[in-house]
Amino acid sequence: MSHSIFCLREPKMATVRSLRCTAFLITLLTSCFCRTGIAEETLCLNRSIAAEDNTESNASSALSYSLRVAGEAEHISLSDSWLNPSNILDRPETRFEAFTVGNVLFKTMGGVFETEIRFGHEYTEDGSSNSKTNLDVNQFYYQKKFDGISVIAGRKKVRWGVGYSYSPTDLVSQLRTPEDPEDRLGKVKGADILEMSFNRENSQLDVAYVPQLDWNFDGAFVRNNRLAIRWYRFMDPYDISLVGSIDEHGKWSAGFNTSSTYGKALELHAEYLYTSSTGRFYPDTSLDPESFSIPYFGERSGGYHEILLGGQYTFNNNLNLTLEYLFTSNGFSDSEFKSYADHARYLNTQYPMGSDPDPSLAGLYESASNYVLPLRKHYLFSRLYHPEVIKSISLEMYSYLSLSDGSGFFVIQPKFEKAKNYDLYLRMKKFWGKSDSEFGLVPDEFSALIGVSLYLGS
Predict the structure, then answer these.
(1) For residues 434 and 408, what is the distance between their CA atoms, to the nearest angstrom?
(2) Most buried among 41, 137, 186, 420, using CB within 10 Å?
(3) What do you get for the CA distance between the two ends of the chain, in Å?
């Protein structure tokens, strides 16, 4: 299961979703408020064995409700990337986004009903203007517990992994990416799931049916059937999870994760996953990269391995350091990446030349559509976070480095937070790398944004 920070090819016009119940949902959201901000991870604590099933115990009353109102304005400096001459990919240089994320948690029928709905509007400009409005149901599920058994039905964010920047073993819902591990925009959706959990004193077994459903009702409603299983065991100070999944086409994954804590300051974790099918395309190294060959990429049979090793340490002054190493055999080899970069360079030089740019344009689109991170094999993620550098101001810095060629990106984000009711933050991201490096091919060079969130609720 490969994680994706972004795919470079973006559609010119976004699809605007509309639902008949929009007016009702907006009314519900604006009448129900409780904070749904993302928790900062500053301490090393043991994970609960019922981490996905503790909703009911956390509800202090029959009804909890929330609303987060937020907005961002961003300016992006585009780089002179070989994949994007004359901005053929329509990458935006300006972005404005306003959104609300509303939560309702209601105890009823002996269980808990919870929903998280995001309503947002985004405006981007890349020489032309694009505008889209989305109404997304991130969570919408019912959970009931009885006699050591928990049943969940609906759409839910389920976390099985232990990684901070990415978790290969999050087989149900992939909730984190290295580019934005805390999902500041609230865009991460849960999975449509029917799950049964069996709890004992120090262990838990989760069995989940996770179908791929088409809520646009365009053809078959159930596109793919998948079964996922996790067995969890806590052995102080260690815990371990065995995970696996298989779908109706025979694609399967299996692996494990573990974490341990030492005192109140140090936490170490590891994950391993094997997936039976790559599901991605690779450059054909037998073809001349200085050609208009299409398709230049082909599918490869066989599976791949993912390994994540990491930990975090909290110093006496509350400064938190997180380090993680990620390996994926799904990435391009050195020869494959060289072929990929040489092909993009050649198409770039040919694009503005000649009377017919269509062959080079088609080749660049194909190359850009196959730029899905992780593109190589070895990565290092690092993060420094301090909850209060000075009064009411926190500071977060993190980076993602491709160990194959030294390219990467760096993010710095100071945040002003007052009385837990609102926060104001500045976020700057810088890409670095030579033109023929992994992150040197990214069309974005630098971006700066300012964001604000207002939290209301019970």
Answers:
(1) 10
(2) 186
(3) 38
The 3-state DSSP class for residue 28 equals: helix
Instruction: Determine phi and psi for 352, rounding to 5 degrees.
Output: -85, 0
Whether the Cβ atoms of residue 83 and residue 344 lie closer than 8 Å to each other: yes
Name the burial class of residue 381, with classes exposed (0-12), middle (13-18) and buried (19+) by CB atoms within 10 angstroms of its CB: buried
Helix (H, G, I), strand (E, B) or coil at 171: coil
Average pLDDT taken over every residue of the chain:
87
Q: Which CATH superfamily is domain 22-457 in?
A: Porin (2.40.160.10)
Q: Is the pLDDT of residue 25 over 90?
A: no
Q: Identify the band that residue 58 occupies on the pLDDT scale cut at 50, 70 and 90.
A: low
Q: Sketch the domain layout of the chain as residue ranges.
A: 22-457
Residue-wise over 405-441: b if at least 16 C-beta within 10 A, else e? bebbbebebbbebeeeebbebebebbbbbeebbbbbb
